[in-house]
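Running this now, will post back.
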Amino acid sequence: MSEAKDDQLLRKQAVEQEATQHDAILARVERLEKENRRLKHGALACLVAIASIGLMGQATQTGPATQTGQTPRKTTKSTRAATPAPAPFVMPQNIEAQSFILKDPNGKTRAELSMGGTGPSLKLLDQSGSALVTLSLNDAAPGGPFVLLSDPQHHAGLSMSVLENAGSQLTLTGEREDIQAHLGVTPDGTNFELTDRYGFSASIGDGTVNKGGQVKKTTAASIALFNKDRKVLWSQP
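Update: finished.
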């Protein structure tokens, strides 16, 4: 009987010891799994930190990669907010167009440079848009340059021209078109003529005079006076 009890006691002790070992193994396995999870979480946190540091490093670099041997310059808030520097201005060698218009701060046209039907012209305009200065080049016959100056009301004016086969001409006009002075240097000679508001005129220089039904050619030393009907009042020689 004592031996049977001893055997039972031994078997019970063995079972208890095996259960204790089994519990220890389970506890150890559970502890290892917890440590493994902590290691995984720590490694993930390290990776996130490294990636964040790399992104921050890229954000502090300035634009494109620097050349070899140059130290990258860190940008500040002010430099990141600043707009890129404009490209350097390159002066064009030629500008081609059929017209150019110059406007004042109020948007009114004050000058025109254009190519018209008879040739190029430059006009300077007042604030009302009226051309007071005109410089043109006539391509049609008789060709040549022409200059016109006028007051704002277009009453008084000055015109100059140097036209082909017509010589040089200078005309001054007053408040009325019939009040003028004209100076011309033509292939036929030189003439200076004055006209007043009553229609009377005086001519000095080369020209023609109809006196007594006879047409007489005058010279640079000739003087002739005319009435409003263009009849000779007096001439010499």
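The first helix runs from residue 2 to 59. More later if anyone needs it.
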